[in-house]
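task queued by scheduler; priority normal; single chain, no ligands, no partner chains; default sampling; output format set to structure tokens
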Amino acid sequence: MIALSKEIQQAVRAAKEEPVRLVDPETKAEYVMVPVETFELMRKGVYYDDGPITEEERTALLVEMGLSIGWDDPEMDVYNDMVPRRDDESSTR
């Protein structure tokens, strides 16, 4: 384990609950330092879940996509009054 320098200790205290951003002066690579409790939550998927999408997430994405392409445009209201297709009708119309 590496001990924090005085400069980084001050940055951590000043940041309070926010992550501390660090830069390697030689490579210019950037890093983010977070408390170990936060890191462990991230590893367990509390902040990120790469599991299958839920039905609620799918619905929210569909609504968001529909709104982004103009489905809420008043001119689209004409489709609300159309006669819905019956289940026994062919879907090749």
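post-processing summary
- Residues 6-43 form one domain.
- Strands lie at 20-23, 30-33.
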